[in-house]
Specification:
The protein has 22 helices and 18 strands. The protein is of the alpha/beta class and 618 residues long. The relative contact order is 0.12. The strands form four sheets. Strands 1, 4, 5, 6, 9, 10, 11, 12 and 13 form a nine-stranded mixed β-sheet that branches. The longest helix has 29 residues. 46% of the residues lie in helices and 11% in strands. Bound molecules: (2R)-2,3-dihydroxypropyl phosphate and manganese (II) ion. The site of (2R)-2,3-dihydroxypropyl phosphate has 9 residues, from α12.
Length: 618
């Protein structure tokens, strides 16, 4: 009996501690306690049927499984600020590639999660002394086992019922997975995730109901019919080269900011003065990280709700930016000096219409910083290559040097004086992004010196946030914000979006709320391409009355409000005062509808069908 109590208490303590580490309130959540007990009763249903020796072995096995689930979720949460789902396990092969990042995610206090293994040896010794009587399974044991199973299911179901009452849709959309874990615990969360995954896999073969396809087509029809006839900036970049640079972990708070009287990003600050600068460009990526950012910018579709679209749907037809430009005679290149298979890029890029994918096998590795070739060398070699190619071209460049955990700062030679932040996580990040800015300065100067800048539409944006949520207090101190609550945290989930047009046309700051989804429609208009028959979820930012960014967890931000949907609270984006969320119900429903439409298009590979439908709409 001792073994059962010791191991069960250890498991419950670990799960509650894990919930605390991922931002959950542990004590006040009644459904969490109910759900945990329900889960344990289910897990223990075998115990009465096992002899003592096997009973302890079974419990130790369960304990090891739970500890593995906790630790893998904890590392994943620290990096992605999200919880693992079964489809994400398909991405586990990449963990080796970002190994140094994973190691940096481990905190010394994590050893607490394996401390209970100290009990395993005495427990084994204890049962060795036990004399094993040859006894069959008594009816009482079967009764207890069945009782545990039924009570466990009822308690777990009740916990899920309370959660569903609090947050309708959250269990079907899974839009805020950490919220689910906060309320029903990690075990029941994974049980539901496994059930959904199996159900989705089984249900996936069933094509989408015809009436749902009609609704989706009608949504795009309304969008086409409401598009302006003579949009501003139409064709200002027609026939020009397009260079789109996705910068690793370039978060907006560094723009135009100084430390010890030094600009963190002087080159971008200079470029912004002669470009169109979108300062409210929000992070819409999901578990696909960088690849989600690429997908958003190149297809104007949302990331999928669990896992990464690059891993799960690389074989789909996408009417992507590269494909549209290819129809206009462009040669198209994806350039990223890293492992070709990372994020399944070597499979996905052809589906995105890239003629060539220049990966690490195409570059001379003459300067290594962090995960691979330095951005400066990457840009130098990339421009050398582009100068020899057929024009016009679309080059999509993805940088690497400023990749988490930013700790390889020696090569930066203290170019940025971070003062007392030297050697801290945030200090390392500022040095890394200062280097990335230097590399971008090299790219911009090279384009100018070689007369290419006025022959190019240059787009630069950050792929996602840089400072993970477990470091939010460091960020708050640096920014001088007293309390980095969820409102402030989401407000800072922004990256810069800069579009430089030939002749500095249109230079100025745009405040419209937007995200990666909007890059493609905005660019097509600039390139003089009519995108009305292309199923894009985003909006042309230079011809839209209002903006909106929708995050994968259902949060959304428009020009007036910031809505933390699953938290049940909204704020006035300017004053920070709370705003009655029920008055945003139509916008919340619209945000979920957009996520759902995009999800269904990807799950059912509908782009070609919708595009053909739109062609027939006048
Ligand atoms: C390496 C890099 C990975 O390919 O793009 O970026 P991440 O998704 O880890 O930010
Ligand atoms: Mn990234």
């Amino acid at each position: 009996m001792t073994g059962i109590i010791v191991l069960s208490l250890a498991m419950i303590a670990k799960l509650l501690y894990f919930n605390k580490l991922i931002g959950g309130k542990v004590s006040s959540v009644i459904e969490l306690i109910i759900s945990l007990f329900g889960a344990f009763m289910i897990l223990h249903f075998l115990t009465p049927l096992l002899k003592k020796k096997r009973r302890i072995i079974y419990l130790i096995f369960i304990n090891i499984i739970i500890t593995f689930l906790i630790l893998s979720n904890l590392l994943f949460y620290r990096y992605f600020n999200d919880i693992i789902t079964l489809p994400i396990i398909t991405q586990i092969s990449m963990v080796g590639s970002v190994y140094s990042s994973v190691l940096n995610l481990i905190h010394f206090s994590d050893v607490l999660f394996i401390a209970d293994s100290l009990f395993y040896v005495p427990l084994f010794k204890n049962i060795r002394k036990e004399t094993q009587y040859k006894t069959g399974i008594k009816n009482i044991s079967i009764g207890i086992s069945v009782g545990l199973l039924i009570t466990g299911f009822l308690l777990s179901y009740y916990g899920v019922y309370l959660l569903d009452k609090k947050q309708p849709k959250i269990l079907t959309t899974f839009y805020d997975k950490s919220y689910i874990v906060h309320h029903i615990g990690l075990i029941n969360y994974h049980a539901i995730d496994a059930f959904k995954f199996i159900k989705e896999e089984v249900g996936r073969n069933k094509s989408l109901m015809e009436d749902e396809i009609i609704k989706i087509k009608d949504w795009f029809k309304q969008k086409k019919l409401s598009a302006p006839d003579n949009p501003k900036y139409f064709g200002v970049g027609k026939g020009k080269n397009v260079i789109m640079v996705q910068v690793e972990a370039l978060q907006e708070f560094v723009i135009k900011r100084k430390i010890n009287d030094m600009e963190i990003t002087p080159n971008l600050n200079k470029l912004i003065k002669k470009s169109i600068y979108f300062k409210n460009f929000y992070c819409e990526t999901g578990a696909g990280g960088t690849s989600d950012a690429e997908f958003l910018a190149n297809t104007s579709l949302y990331p999928i709700k669990t896992g990464a679209v690059y891993m799960k749907y690389p074989g789909n037809y996408y009417y992507s930016l590269a494909k549209v430009l290819k129809e206009q005679g462009y040669s198209t290149f994806a350039m990223h000096a890293y492992k070709p298979g990372f994020w399944n890029r070597s499979v996905m890029y052809p589906s995105l219409g890239f003629d060539e994918y220049l990966n690490r096998n195409h570059y001379v590795h003459d300067e290594i910083i962090g995960m691979g070739l330095s951005d400066k060398s990457f840009f130098r070699q990339s421009i050398d290559y582009l100068k020899k190619t057929r024009k016009p071209y679309y080059a999509f460049m993805i940088t690497l040097t400023s990749h988490y955990p930013y700790d390889n700062t020696k090569p930066y030679n203290n170019a940025l004086n971070v003062g007392k932040l030297k050697g801290t996580f945030l200090g390392n990040y500022l040095e890394a992004i200062h280097y990335a800015d230097q590399a971008l300065g090299y790219l911009i100067n090279r384009l100018e010196e070689e007369g290419l800048l006025d022959d190019t539409v240059l787009v630069i944006y950050g792929d996602h946030y840089a400072i993970s949520k477990d470091r939010k207090d460091e960020l708050a101190d640096f920014l001088g914000i007293g309390n980095m609550d969820n409102y402030m945290w989401v407000k800072f989930q922004k990256m810069p979006l800069i579009i430089h047009l030939p002749g500095d046309e249109g230079a100025g700051v745009e405040n419209i709320a937007c995200g990666g989804l909007d890059i493609m429609p905005t660019l097509l208009n600039i390139m003089g391409i009519d995108g009305r028959n292309i199923p894009m979820m985003g909006r042309d930012l230079l011809n839209s009355q209002e903006g909106m960014a929708v995050m994968r967890n259902g949060y959304f931000i428009n020009d007036n409000y910031l809505c933390l949907t699953s938290d049940g609270v909204a704020y006035d984006i300017k004053t920070g005062e709370t705003y009655p969320i029920e008055s945003l119900r139509d916008k919340i429903d619209n945000a979920f509808m957009e996520l759902d439409i995009s999800q269904k298009i990807i799950e059912n590979n509908l782009i070609e069908e919708i595009s053909s439908y739109l062609v027939g709409i006048d």
